[in-house]
Amino acid sequence: MSELFESLLRPYDERRRAELVAAYTAVEHAAEPVPEVRFPALREPALRRTVEGMLALSGRTLVRSDRTKWISGYRDDVAAELARDPECVPPVRDRAVLTLVLIHSVAIPRAAGRLGDDSWLSPFPTPVDELRRRTQLPVGELDAALRRLRLAGLVSQVKAGSDDTGGFVPGPQFHRLTPAARRRLQEELILAAGPDSPLAAAIRARRRNRESDQGENT
Q1: 129-168 pLDDT tens trace
Q2: In the chain, where does DSSP find H-type helix?
Q3: In this structure, how many other beta carbons lie within 10 angstroms of the beta carbon of residue 36?
Q4: How far apart are CA 91 and CA 126, in angstroms?
Q5: Closest by alpha carbon to 128, among 100, 108, 109, 86?
Q6: Which of 68, 72, 96, 210 is most deeply buried (CB count within 10 A of its CB)?
Q7: pLDDT at 163
Q8: SS3 assignment, position 168
Q9: In the predicted model, what is the mean pLDDT of residues 123-133?
């Protein structure tokens, strides 16, 4: 790993190098955002910029969480490029099931004032029975989609209450959304949950205007 980052690590002594590599490894591989108090290279702005440089070599960036925690995610331009690659896009059935989980675990609690506007992790699991009622997928295909989403870190299974059926919430990959990605996802969720709402109409109009402006500038 040190060879890959040699040009970035060269100005530092061995101790600082070890701190930088430790911070890089933590934000890349941790399931949850890591507290900066545990990593000097995340606490100190100059070192943190070097960690960002290390991440940038693979199209990644630092994502702040809860003001003093950090994790890595794809840069917005890289994520947009990956989204155009069919090999990187989950199957349509998986996306449909994930959308249901987001609507019932995030959108509905948020509309009721029980969840913060910027939160994509939720303590409100979507029961399995609710997913079965809301989708036309056969039970076997629904279960297979949920397994794939769990393996990808896009949903997590938790207890839904006193019964044994459990429920599903957004998974740890949602920690890795950049602020811009969070906003885009919020818009997509509004369009999916209330396509005929005034807010959805405003989103579509804003996108048309943005596309028009981009077209004029090219």
Answers
A1: 999 999 889 999 999 999 999 999 999 998 755 555 679 9
A2: 6-9, 14-29, 40-43, 45-56, 76-83, 92-102, 108-111, 128-134, 139-151, 179-193, 198-217
A3: 18
A4: 21
A5: 100
A6: 72
A7: 56
A8: strand
A9: 91
**Can you state the angle between helices 198-217 and 179-193, rounded to 10 degrees?**
130
| 66 φ, ψ (degrees, to nearest 5) | 55, 30
Please give the torsion angle defined by the CA atoms of residues 146, 65, 89 and 80, in that order, rounded to the nearest 10 degrees. 170
Query: In one letter, which amino acid is 123?
Result: P
Place of tokens 């090999």: 87
Q: To which residue do tokens 């006193």 refer?
A: 162
Q: If you count them, how many residues does the chain have?
A: 218
- Which pTM value belongs to this model? 0.82
Beta bridge mates, 74? 60
pLDDT of 24-46, one tens digit each? 999 999 999 999 999 999 999 99
- The radius of gyration of the chain's CA atoms, rounded to the nearest angstrom, is 20
SS3 of residue 167 by DSSP: strand
In three-state secondary structure terms, 127 is strand
* Higher pLDDT pick, 218 / 20: 20
pLDDT in tens, 167-203: 999 999 999 999 999 888 888 888 877 788 888 888 8
Beta bridge partners of 135: none
189 CB-near residues (< 8 Å, 6+ apart): 99, 102, 103, 106, 107
Q: Which among 65, 74, 22, 73 is positioned nearest to 47, based on CA atoms?
A: 22
